[in-house]
Amino acid sequence: MRDGQCHWCTGPLGDSPSSDYCSQDCQRDWQRAQLRIDSPEQIQRAGVRARKRARQQVRSAS
Ligand SMILES: [Zn+2]
Known about the structure:
mainly alpha; 2 helices; flat; binds zinc ion
């Protein structure tokens, strides 16, 4: 169903390439929320990925 609203924040889609989300951030957050509902194992995996990414950001900032 396409109603011109972001499925996550319900904001306008604007010129987003996605027909469901106004930005990749919203799509990612929505997917993360689904994972949270699905299984603890997937949450853990997503957490590891987020931690790895945070470490890379620290490294590139210094
Ligand atoms: Zn949005």
